[in-house]
Please model this.
Amino acid sequence: DKVQSKEEQRDVVQDPSARRNPVELVADDNVVKLGMTFEGKPPGYIKVKACSEGGWAESVGIQPGDTIISVDGEDLKDMTSEDFKTLCKKRPVQFLVEQAS
Model:
């Protein structure tokens, strides 16, 4: 069995019930762009890669390294990348985000 480094262990995304206090954030009708890019795509939880300066994501406290767990109540571990793209474009849209720090 391979022993994982602390860095590798940190990269493993666990079951949401074992996660630190995720926060719900809503992009409402006046949000044109979310202002964030992602590392990877569903199925599976995804990390925020970058946030646009002055964008919605930055304004609500999302930071690179945060993990998106669900969109509009739908868990990302079972979501297709196409459904994710579609949901991200609709407004209002709710994200469940686990903050990295």
Observations:
- The mean pLDDT is 86.
